[in-house]
Each structure stands twice: as structure tokens, then as C-alpha cells.
């Protein structure tokens, strides 16, 4: 667990005593020199050491580009450290000079052991090149590891130059070969296994039992019974943690009753229990190309909590009443029980709506399609269409970019890369879940709560966007830079003729439109969790929380507890003060874990894609330049995978290539060549770097 602190190092500090957090030299040993830096010249961010390079960057939250740090200005900062730096001008460019380490990184790291038996200690060599320091482990802290073993380590003490470490776990002995994905997971701190005692206790406690549904001694039913309402789940074929189900009724007056049933995980995960502490430590399930790292043990996530068909399940149900004009007029939340009638896939729902599946056809779950199911799916589609039409008139920002899907065989070998299928029913469930999230957030806003907030973009983002639009001859005037204006801009980009301020200009191509949409998306801030409600810019709503996925997201589980206590009339002053105290840290931790999970997912995806293309060196490909930066470009292959590549060393012959920032292109005047956004090029796969996870191409001669 962690707590907030007002000490000089700022941020959050562990409750458990760690030696390096309590050293008297903490606030002075890592100060480069006393200095009085003007606030406008000071930046606070995360230091990132470049692989195998003598430089790094300080990344500041909310800013698109990091600040360059040359080796002499690193001040013994390590990869992931939180630092304070002074902005300075070097060679007409702003760089960072680190003058204080605010907080040392506490990430676990994967290394290879190199024994020095005669000296009584071992050196450890990182599996990547981001650490710029001699690293050793005392003999007593090796935990029986041997030479060439792969180990997971953590820092136990910081000295001026050399940190001191200990082995947490021996991940793989020296004869094991397949370590890469597991090492990525270990580095992020996510655990693939749960404590054996925790699992044993859970199995003993429940052993196929469900918590009682009535109050003891009184026999008073305190859960609303939804088992007689026609209910079904819609999910992917390989999903096992089914945490949402829906029921729909249409009334005679034309209004709808939409029931969104969400697994009641809080009934099984008691606050401050060992299970709860493990859940909040993980904070999220992680969905990798070859596995899932769950937030909760399988006995809960795939069994007791999962809303599997034809079994009684506990739930929190949000009942939303939508009038004939498609407005949400009332919402109620109940503790309830359901019995799902069908377990459907997104593909099946689309096939039902297109009449490809008819009555008595066999479904994925093994049941036969019924007349009642067909009628209810048609009703759900009708409601979804009306909600979507209303949103198209209320300035909700919709970005729909292709996602990359990896197909692995039984040996976990990548055999195909393709665009992730997108079904109409995806949008249906998304709309229903968003409605429930908003309704619940609004209903319980007067109590301590966790919100999913999306802040207004920074002013400098608007200025950068205006410059980019001018590059495309698009004249768009911002006044408030609010959601409506961004929606108007997206709408106009997709209907570009009125935007072009130069007569005779060509209409935007599809690639140009997609590039501009991505550029607009990058100007927006990232959604995070907060105990303070600040609204959701992208959804254009004042209240928004995550309520619908408590099996895989801790914020949902957290607000379920608050809701249940309110429904049971137990949310007294003491409990309100309790939640006010813990929610700031819960919000921070969940946001932080979410970022780590996303980075891990992308890294594992890139690992498999790089391995796939390693077997294709020398083959020809056709790709499109989607983003141009001063030294690199993003390129997209036909399989939708996108890569971040160094451009200048790979393109052209010799010197003469220059980056034109105003036109966002590379040009070589002597060769009369240029590389622009959205250019399509024929290239040859030249190199695959499995350590840096990069793919390099060269142009065809």
C-alpha cells in the first residue's frame, strides 16, 4: 500500500519501510548544485534513457515531445526516475539539465547474473541497454542464483553512483531459452501467478458456493430478482470473464427499459483482505497477444463472478429508462440476481441482424437460436440506433482507427497479422455501457466517488493544431477549443471541400484525413481516474465513471463498494471520511497501472510482430508514411501495424537530407527527392532488431 506524503520528495511513498527512502542524504545527495531556478524554466518529468545511447529524454506529462538530456547533464538519473530539470538553450534548441532526482524508480528489472565468486558478489547485466551504471549484488542477496541465470531484481539502497540490489526471484535457469515475453512482464511488476495460500483459501471459502441471497434470521430478500427477465451477454469468442449482461423491454408508450447487469465482484472481494490488496496492486487485467494476466484469480474471474449462462449470478443492475425521444429520463441501481439465457458473440449478433442466423440455428454457446432472442436483438439494435443518432447531434468525439490483431497457433507462434474485426454490435454494447457509466456517476456524485476524467486540451496543443491545419490549407477558427469545436473540425475534415481556402485545391485523400484525425487525437489529453470530478471532454458529459468492468478494473470494483454501502444505508460519516482519505491514492495507482499495462501490451505485440518479420528479411513491401518527425517517421504496413523508424540513416544516399518542419517532410535538393506525409513507397525489409523491437526498411533501387 501507498500513502500520500507532504515531504520534500513529493509524490507517494511506500508504507513499508525501505532503507533507501529513509536515508538522511535523500534530499541532498542527488542535488547537482544549489540553484535558484525560475518556475518557468523548471520541468518535472520522467527520465528515459535511450537504448545503448549516451543521451536520454525527460518526458513531461501532457507534452508531446520529451526534452533532450546529454550524458553530462544526466546527474546519475536512472531510467524511469522522477526528476527536476532546468530548461536551457543549447545550439538554439531547448534541452534539459537535470538537477534533482525527485523519486527513484521502483520498477523490477530483468538481468543476467555474472558471478565473481572470488570477490563475494555478482555483477548483473541488463537484458537491455538503458542502465548506465556498474551494478552488483552482495553474495547474501543472490537467492541461490547461479552464473548465467535470468533473475528479477529490485533496488534496496541508493548510493551516489552505484545502487545496491537484491534478487527477488530466479525467473529462468541458464538452460531455459524462451524468456522474452516473461521478462517484459517481470519488468513492469505484473505477476502472472497468485499466492498459493490465497488461492487455497478462496477454494475452501467458496467451493462452488454463492454468498447467501437473504438477510440471516429475517429471510428478507435484499436483492432484486431479475432471473425471469430475458437476459444475454455479448462478448468475444475467447472471452472468459463475462462481467456485463443486458435485458431490454419496450413499453406501450414507446419508452425503453434498459437493464445493464454488472457482476457483483465486491460481494466476493472484501475490502482490505489479502485478495483486495492483491487486486489493487494489479489494478487491471492485462491482455497480451499470447495470454491474459488477470486482476483476480480464475476461480472468481472466470467462474463465480463471471455471468455465465444458466447459472444464478450476483450483480449490480443499472436500470435506465429512455423515453420515445431517446432521452435518459430516469436511472436506478439495484443489487440483484440474474440467470443469463444466452452467451452470444459480437459476430453472431451482427449475423442475427442481417438474417444470416435464424430460429433453430445452433449458436456458439451450444444453444439453438430462439424467436425471443431474435426479437430482443432487433429491439437492442433499434435502441442503439436511436442513441447513436442522438449522439451525432450532441458533439461526442468518435475516433475509429484500425487495431492490429495477432493470430497465434498452439505453439504461441505468430502466423497472421490482420486488422481487428469491428462489428456493429461492438458499438451497441459500447453505447449501453457508456450510458450506464454516465448514469451511475451522476446518481452518486454527492458521495465520495471515483471518476473517469478527460481534461480539456492544453492551449499550446491548439496552437500546434492550427499550424498543422494551415499546412493543409484548412482555415478553421477556434474560439473556446471545446468538444463541439473539435467535433465540427472532425466533421469538416471528412467533408473537406468547404475547408480549402485556396481555390483549385484538391480534396483531402483518405490518408490525409486519417492523419489529421490522428493528429487531433494526439492533441487531446489522456483520460485518467480521479476522486475529483472534472467531466469528460471526449464524451461531452459532466459526469462519467467506470462501472461496467469490475472483474478486470479496480476502479469499477471500488465504486461498487460505495454504491452497495449506500444502497444498504451503511454509508455513514465514518465511511465517507474513509473513502475521502483513500480515493486519491486509488485513483493515482489505477491510472499508473493502466499506463504500465498499455506499454506492456504494445511491447509484447511489437515483440511478436518483429519475430514474424524477422523471417521475411529481403522481401518487398508497400507502406505509407503516416507521421513525420525531425528524425523519424511513423509508417504503416498493409497489415495495419505501425512502426517508429529512424529516417535519415535509412533513406537516400549520403548527406543532403533535411527536415522541413513547416511542410513536415524530408527533402534532398541535390537529388531532387522528397518524402511527404501519406506518400506510398515500395521498400525492402532490411533489418529486424529483436532487442530494440524495431524494423528497418530501405527503399528499392
Q: Please tally the helical runs, counting DSSP H or I stretches of 4 or more residues.
A: 13
What order do the strands of the largest sheet run in, or round the barrel if closed? 5-4-3-6-7
Structural class: alpha+beta
**Alpha-carbon Rg, integer:** 28 Å
How many discrete structural domains?
5
Largest sheet: 5 strands, antiparallel
Catalogue the unreliable spans. 1-34, 174-178, 212-221, 498-505, 650-654
The protein's oligomeric status is: single chain
The termini sit apart by 59 Å
Tally of extended strands?
33
Mean pLDDT: 81
Our estimate of the beta-strand percent is: 25-35%
The geometry reads as globular
Question: Fraction of residues in helices?
Answer: 25-40%
Report on this model:
- The protein has 701 residues and is of the alpha+beta class.
- The chain folds into five domains: 26-103, Beta Barrel (OB fold (Dihydrolipoamide Acetyltransferase, E2P)); 109-177, OB fold (Dihydrolipoamide Acetyltransferase, E2P) (Beta Barrel), CATH 2.40.50; 196-450 and 545-603, no CATH class; 456-524, no CATH class; 616-699, OB fold (Dihydrolipoamide Acetyltransferase, E2P) (Beta Barrel), CATH 2.40.50.
- Helices cover 26% and strands 27% of the residues.
- It contains 13 helices and 33 strands.
- The strands form ten sheets. The protein has a five-stranded antiparallel β-sheet, with no helix packed on it. Strands 10-9-8-11-12 form a five-stranded antiparallel β-sheet. The protein has a five-stranded mixed β-sheet with strand order 13-20-19-16-15.
- Strand 19 and strand 20 form a beta hairpin.
- The N and C termini lie far apart (59 Å).
- Mean pLDDT is 81; it is low at 1-34, 174-178, 212-221, 498-505 and 650-654.
